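Structure tokens please, single chain.
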Amino acid sequence: PPRSTRKESSAASDVYKRQALAEAIATPLELVALQAPQLQTQGSGRQWYGLFPADWAAVPAAVEALKKRIHNLSSEGIPLEATVLLGFSQGGAMAVAAGCDLPLAGLIACSAYPHPNWQAPVIRPPVLLLHGRHDDVVPHSAALALNNDLSQSNQTCDVFSFDNGHAIPFEAQAEMKKALKCWLDQPAQSA
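Here you go.
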């Protein structure tokens, strides 16, 4: 069956980047970009829960809603075990919180952070964390905190840091391609 990459960010979802990721691996795949349900109240874009100030009380319901959307997509023919979830910034935090509880092929979180009181499960998919050392929106220390939280697991958690800010530069895209190739160019397995 085709493999799937589910993206959780409009910031990194332009067609060129999706095609480049798809072309990086030999396995046919389907790309699905899930849009956060709320409009941001400041600036432009979308959000999973209020950002300024952060509405942490809304996080559990937002995570459960995202899990439901992912399960609904898997019922359309692409098994979760052949799905990689990708998120950027708040989408990365949501991808980690929801994706670590699902039997995914892998999880990529860019400029992500752990939600308060989040507990990483012991059984989870492999994770790739990408984060700029000069990120002025989500500090680089958030990736290190996530890595620490995820280190007590049955799966890998790789961190790729780069000399940039709140972005997904070319060198980070190369790391994504490597992870996708590793996770999707092999028989699907449960985490």
